């Protein structure tokens, strides 16, 4: 027991030091823009008349890395924009509620402040489908179309409880704090659970995913999103006649 306690203490001290060092090698690939008084990160590339806007799924540590195999193939033909919601990737945390109207408004403000111009093609992955649908409902004149990548339907989310048990959140935070998570993330198996395919991303990108995961694991913004998933889906369904939905 004593040896275990000493190892955990040493791991905690190392993690505290290493997390500080991490930020020195974690420069944002895009730019920061002020949204609701906080910094929100947006990565853009490519050129064209249409901008493809990527919305990550719930809990995606680093959207810039996660979508890279896809947008690398597109940016020679269209402009692409990958945003980090608050609590993700390179963005700050926020005290604003994580309801779908607030999130879609933040996306709109980010795109406008950063100088992006519609028409947009909104791409939603998993739970990100809700904010892309709501964005299209609220700003229909700016959206030319939508693409879903394993996008969850509002009907599904409205009747499914996605809440994560407290013990799982506490356990994950313990693994991060004691340095155990950092060790586990060195394996290709664990990395494969965080990005589409580790073979498709560069080593610096893998490092960015590791840092993002350790920095943001189960933070309050991320957890409030999943707690609100049913009410957010209900909001989309209540407005489904907009943007041509039957």
Oligomer: single chain
Q: DSSP strand (E) fraction? A: 15-25%
Number of DSSP-assigned strands: 6
Compute the average pLDDT: 84
Run of helices and strands: HEEEHHEHEHEHHHHHHH
| Helix count, DSSP H or I runs of 4 or more residues | 12
Largest beta-sheet characterization: 6 strands, mixed
Low-confidence stretches: none
What integer value in Å does the Rg equal?
A: 19 Å
Between the first and last Cα atoms, what is the distance in angstroms? 62 Å
Please give a structural write-up.
- The protein is of the alpha/beta class.
- A six-stranded mixed sheet has the order 1-2-4-3-5-6.
- Helix 4 packs across helix 5 and helix 5 packs parallel to helix 12.
Secondary structure topology:
Layout: H1 2-22, E1 31-35, E2 38-46, E3 51-55, H2 63-66, H3 68-74, E4 79-83, H4 100-113, E5 120-125, H5 128-138, E6 143-149, H6 154-158, H7 166-177, H8 180-184, H9 188-192, H10 203-216, H11 220-227, H12 229-238
Parallel strand pairs: 3-4, 3-5, 5-6
Antiparallel strand pairs: 1-2, 2-4
Helix pairs in contact: 4-5, 5-12
What's the gist of this structure?
With 246 residues, the protein is an alpha/beta fold. 47% of the residues lie in helices and 15% in strands.
Key phrases:
246 residues; alpha/beta; six-stranded mixed beta sheet; globular
